[in-house]
Amino acid sequence: MQYSDYFTGRNWTTMPVDDNNNADPDLLAEEKALERAGRLHWFHWLVLAFSLVLTLSVWQYSSRQLQEKMDNRFTQQGEQIAALVKERLQKYEDALWSGVAAIHSHGGDISFADWQTFAEALHIGEKYPGINGIGVIHQVAPQQRQQYLALQRTERPDFQIHPSHDQNVLLPISYIIPVKGNAAAVGLDVAHENNRLTAALKSRDSATAQITGPIILVQDSQKKPGFLFYAPYYSGPATSVEERREAFSGLVYAPFVVEKLMRGTLQKSRRNIHFRILDQQQTLYDESADSENKSYQPRLSGRHTLSLYGRDWVLETWESKAFWADFSESQPQLILICGIVLDIMLLSLFLLLSRAQRRSLSFAKRMVARATKRTDELRDTVKLLERSNQELEQFAFIASHDLQEPLRSVSNFSGMLKESLADNEKEHVRSAVFFISEATNRMQNLLTGLMDYSRISQEIEWESIDCDDVVDGVLADLSELIREKNAKVVVSPLPVIVAGRSQLRQLFQNLIANALKFSREDSTCKIEIAAKQSSSNWTFSIRDNGIGISPENFERIFFIFRRLHRNEEIPGSGIGLSSCRKITTLFGGDIWLDSTVGEGSCFYFTIPKAINKGA
């Protein structure tokens, strides 16, 4: 496989190899898998297709939800208009029946003055907006015409029945309150016109309230569509049609101009849809005639049938411009656009990741080529370093061993010289000989410690070791020092671990000896040895109540030949703790301490549970 070095531009040919420079089939297979991963696969396209389908589904669902919400709102408002119209007419019906009750309370007939008093008590203008008035229609037989006129003219001399017609019944409007605005209706015979007469007779025969078909009220100068609302009253029992016709006395009625009624019933401020009312294809009321609605093209329409007092009104509805203010039609489009943009971004991300994967693999190959080129050089360097370390350790061991002999000679001769000196020799000569002897002893101790330190790096013989046995042996070796310090050593149960026996023994011995050596003179020396386990390590602790160590020296004491006290104060070589760190490092663990000056120290070290025995 050939490719260019990223830094030098040179071409390299290499392939994955193992530690022995042989082609590794597993690495080759993994390399091919990474190359395949750098391309778009079917599952990428599946994710994109699913995302697109999900986007379209959400868009359609949102559109349907919005449409349903608009339809429901539109239908609800149309039904609300129909309900309000019914409710209003029911309220007017109650007013008519109250008029019937008033007539019955006056013995079956009522005078103009009494009717005026009743009508004014209703407060029509305030409680019944849209109504033109409320009046009484009497049934007058043709032979009673003159008698009826004479009675009415007692209070209104100019009263006339009009217009003339060929029906065999007279149904003149006797009273209507308020008179102002309704003067043209006084004396009008409703039998002269078919719509008025048909509803009146139907109300008589059914004993129910009825409304007429579309008419033009004589008192309406604008000639707008209107209707009359009737409620019959009788002079006697009226349980059958025949009895009703026999006992029929007249009607309480109310005239309406539909436009005026609608303005009083349904103010535009309460709704945001428009409507028209039809009676047998004849328009009673139409809001599309308003100048503000002429140019608007509605998108929604509805139709409701109202069965009202013998008539079937058709309510046609459509939305106003204000209707759309409560709906955001852009939401589904925004969802669709955002979904498509996200799909495009997802595709771009896949392409970028694929490209980045290919570039990363190419870069890795270039780096492997450079690393491969230098691997042999590094291996040679490592071998030279290992050989140098071995030679240095051998030199340290040999040097410390060979220096023992001249030191012993110096020590022996200084001892002989000290014995041969007479008591009368000069004091400074005896002091010099003493210092030579002491220095020789310290040098021998240092060389012994250095020899022990150099032996630590020798190959470890891994074996299963009972730490209790090792500590017992160390305590036996230190028994004289323990008695001298009058120390109390408490050993908790210790585990069986895998380690090097000689190194582990030296580790415990150095730490326990230090605890004894640095004890306080003002208190009994106490040493506690324990261990606890975690998921991966055994952690050992050796705690004492000695002189303690200040925090700034926690790291310094682990360097070789670094001592915190002069040899005259506390003897030692300065190699013990550095040996402990070297041993724990060889075991794959760590060593640290926690200490307070004047209160004591606790040294911790860890040994892994799973030790690589080939290390």
From TrEMBL:
<feature type="domain" description="Histidine kinase">
    <location>
        <begin position="398"/>
        <end position="611"/>
    </location>
</feature>
<dbReference type="InterPro" id="IPR036890">
    <property type="entry name" value="HATPase_C_sf"/>
</dbReference>
<dbReference type="InterPro" id="IPR003661">
    <property type="entry name" value="HisK_dim/P_dom"/>
</dbReference>
<dbReference type="InterPro" id="IPR036097">
    <property type="entry name" value="HisK_dim/P_sf"/>
</dbReference>
<feature type="transmembrane region" description="Helical">
    <location>
        <begin position="42"/>
        <end position="61"/>
    </location>
</feature>
<keyword id="KW-0175">Coiled coil</keyword>
<keyword id="KW-0418">Kinase</keyword>
<dbReference type="InterPro" id="IPR003594">
    <property type="entry name" value="HATPase_dom"/>
</dbReference>
<dbReference type="InterPro" id="IPR052162">
    <property type="entry name" value="Sensor_kinase/Photoreceptor"/>
</dbReference>
<keyword id="KW-0472">Membrane</keyword>
<dbReference type="Pfam" id="PF02518">
    <property type="entry name" value="HATPase_c"/>
</dbReference>
<keyword id="KW-0808">Transferase</keyword>
<protein>
    <recommendedName>
        <fullName>histidine kinase</fullName>
        <ecNumber>2.7.13.3</ecNumber>
    </recommendedName>
</protein>
<dbReference type="InterPro" id="IPR042240">
    <property type="entry name" value="CHASE_sf"/>
</dbReference>
<keyword id="KW-1133">Transmembrane helix</keyword>
<dbReference type="Pfam" id="PF00512">
    <property type="entry name" value="HisKA"/>
</dbReference>
<dbReference type="Pfam" id="PF03924">
    <property type="entry name" value="CHASE"/>
</dbReference>
<keyword id="KW-0597">Phosphoprotein</keyword>
<feature type="coiled-coil region">
    <location>
        <begin position="368"/>
        <end position="395"/>
    </location>
</feature>
<feature type="domain" description="CHASE">
    <location>
        <begin position="172"/>
        <end position="316"/>
    </location>
</feature>
<dbReference type="InterPro" id="IPR005467">
    <property type="entry name" value="His_kinase_dom"/>
</dbReference>
<dbReference type="InterPro" id="IPR006189">
    <property type="entry name" value="CHASE_dom"/>
</dbReference>
<feature type="transmembrane region" description="Helical">
    <location>
        <begin position="334"/>
        <end position="353"/>
    </location>
</feature>
<keyword id="KW-0812">Transmembrane</keyword>
<dbReference type="InterPro" id="IPR004358">
    <property type="entry name" value="Sig_transdc_His_kin-like_C"/>
</dbReference>
